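SAMPLE LOG
Freezer: B-3
Tube label: C17
Construct: single chain, 480 aa
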Amino acid sequence: MTDFKFDKETGLELDIDSLIRENAQAVAEYELNENPESPNQDLQDRQALRRVSGLSTELQDVTDAEYRQLRLEKVVLVGVWTEGTSTDADNSIKELAALAETAGSTVMDALIQGRDKPDAATFIGSGKVREVREAVVATGADTVVCDGELSPAQLRTLEQKVKVKVIDRTALILDIFAQHAKSREGKAQVELAQMSYMLPRLRGWGESLSRQAGGIGGRGPGETKIETDRRRINDKMAKLRREIKEMKVSRDTKRSERRKKNIPSVAIAGYTNAGKSSLLNRLTGADVLVENALFATLDPTVRKSESADGRIYTLVDTVGFVRHLPHQLVEAFKSTLEEVSEADLIIHVVDGSHPDPFEQLRAVREVINEIGGGQIMEIIAVNKADVASPEVLMEILRKESNAYAISARTGYGIENLIRAVEAALPKPKVEIRAIIPFSRGDLVSAVHEQGEIISEEYLPEGTKLHAMVGGALARKIELL
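STRUCTURE (predicted):
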């Protein structure tokens, strides 16, 4: 095999053979030193909850204002291939299967329909509808999952023809979020997203569409049941928005305190299941839940870290992204996603073992641009290097100028990533030369944590410092 060498700006020279050797050594050391400990409590709690088989999912009235949790058992997947290669279509349906399994269902069959554009009436076309109905009967499936967002009319028509419940990709992702949300803010955000999705899809059968009684004899058209539900949902959504806005104040206050103290923020972003939580645990020793599942963690986790020269900065683990992330979620999770858009640096984690890592990069950057973080400096962490193909790793490293191959599981490449992060942290811009009395040790400590020490000397009257610090801290020292 011919070696391919890649030169970074730092002068780092890599080739495939050395990459394979270093990976093998890291894996061997990890397996030798691995110490089985009690698993994360959150993971134990989640694994203790299993879906009960035998629950009916037949069509029923969907008019209650409360969101009806999806009860999935056996599902048939349906995708429409309108652009890209057949490999892209296969990868998309495989991701849909992973989403369905994360939601607690068993995938019985999958069908892909090639079309110029989705059918306006049934999404997949009348011929394919018959095939889907046959697959449902043959496999005993109780739900059909479509790889796309269905309009209310498509949803209604498709359910009438396949005779079982039909959901789309958006509803499936919302269901996973509903299962995994833990914090009060996370639950409120998910509920708001669910109701935003559900509002235009309210429908009813039989008496559920009848008018409500009005006056003594029921004079006038009155108000239909579905209109009552729509009003109740709008009221509930308004209440949730107020609650989320109040919770956002607390998050903004904490963020402004960090800004005031010139503490840089590093956001760990990336595709779902790329290894963001594993990387945060590796970098800070945090005990964040790690599970081989999509959207395993939703609530952002902030942890303090310290650079080699003593500067303090924060690392923030954020919610994972996915291609075609529902816009309802982006809107509802805006206060959470601000951790990314207001960060000083983004560690963009990519799954190096994924069949199409470049599609992951594109999908995540699309969401980051949508929330206003497109201009923030980005470091690419190509995770799972211990199981990824060396050729794929080298292709990513060649195409992405600021990329590093790592393994959060074994620790391979973590030191190089840490050095890159610390070098990219924003530097303090105000130069100070001052003698700080020993009685103001708090200021000396603040300079060490927030600034960059050029020289330090202890004199009888105090600590003589020559350093670069932020403007607020420089003013405090000037007032001594």
